[in-house]
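Cross-posting from the modeling subforum.

Setting up a comparison between two proteins and wanted a second pair of eyes on the formatting. Protein 1 (sequence, then structure tokens):
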Amino acid sequence: MMDKEKEERLLAILRSYGSAAVALSGGVDSAVLLMAAQRALGAANVAALTATSELLAAEELDDAKRCATLAGVAWTLLPADDLASPDVVRNDERRCYYCKKRRFDMLVLWAKEHGYARVLDGTNIDDAGDYRPGLVAIEELAPFVVSPLKEAQWTKRDIREAAKAWSIPVWSKPSAACLASRVEYGIALTKESLCAVEAAENALRRYIRGQLRVRHHGNLARIEIEPAEFELFWQYREELEAAVRRAGFTYVTLDLRGYRMGSQNESLTMEK
């Protein structure tokens, strides 16, 4: 059940902006933020912006379109061309910062040119528990870029409950991140490596229903799923292994620790 006090707090924050452009990724966080903005400000005063590049899975783009259509707001695609940036392609531990900064610089420029008072980011208070240099980029662009869910003290659970209550089609969708987050730090990003990850995950999705990541370690794929699905994975082991190999990997492994948010960042901790 939704927390009505938190809901009113969020809507009040959004009303204070007058108008806003929402950074819409296709995930549940930004989808809920978009719907809340539409409820608070009216569709005529809200725009949905999606930065497109090889880092965004096709499924995410489809979901962004569905959510913008449901909200009844204008939806604009802005080509980001992330792989044209050496800082992004280098894929070091600050990649997320460089990517987020250049994308939101682009969103801010569009929003100002079209008369919107703010750009809204879908960060919530649960996001503080992981290494996310991209959040620094968001903070640097304040006060024009704001994170209303975080300001209103919304958790991931609050977001899921709102998405279900508002009949948002992605309410039960597992959390996602850009495809670059699957690639081990230090391995340069290429269109081929990102396509391999996307193809492998799409193939596994035919069997796996919960959280899923295919981590790219060169020619080795490290698959993370929820431990509750290990038995199912083993039941279809040969089919799944063949599908991941067809996607472009030579070796296929299952991570016995299961899915962990931001597990690529564990290598940073070990190096310290």
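Protein 2 (same layout):
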Amino acid sequence: MVTIENRRFSIPQICESGQCFRLDPTGGDTYELIAGDRWLGIRAGEEETVLFCTQEEYEEFWKRYFDLETDYQQYLDRISGDDLYLTEAARFGSGIRILRQDTWEMIITFILSQQNNIRRIKGLIRALSERYGTRCRKPDGTAYYAFPDVQSLAAASEEELREMKLGYRSRYICGAARMIAEGGVDLGSLPEMEYARAREELIKLPGIGRKVADCICLFALHQMDAFPVDTHIQKALDAHYRDGFPFEQYQGCAGVMQQYIFYYDLKGETK
């Protein structure tokens, strides 16, 4: 068990920030998270967060996964006091961190996210994992399913995926999995690339355009200049940044600002 002070770290906010679809509330202040083939129980208190893992597991994986070695106050300090909207959005979502998730998992996740809602995305990921992923055990002995690997989805047929209600995304998932399995895109090289090149490489995959590539760049590759624009973000940009968002001011942390804006538009006080 590892206890973390809630300094710019909020599991409830991260859960609702649109970047992770296998982090779920389980009642009260508890959550569970599946990352690849790993399972984590979480208790999110007001002052502290408890991760139900060993210190070794925390140091080897979860500390980096939650980006807990980064001081997010430095990003908040970059926000201009004249930008009242972003100042309030950042205050409202100041516990959000950019997770360091698996690239392959994010490719499939954000292909599934297109023209979809969060509840349905979660259901599709769960169904894919139960059919093609490895059955694992939680500490209490109950089962969970790892996210399926490249080879498992490359071997799946489009017809099988359509039977699971994946619709037109079935073709994209089969195509992306087979292209990666055959070496058409090398996932191992992506973390070494600069943002623009990594995005260009991802767009080679079926079903991936600029917005989805930006999501993968930000939430898997930790390219902090990636700024995915969906309907929530576009609405905020149109309302508050008619002359354009000041990307130059937020070089190296634009993606963090995107998350503050997204979360505020989704869950803000006006809702």
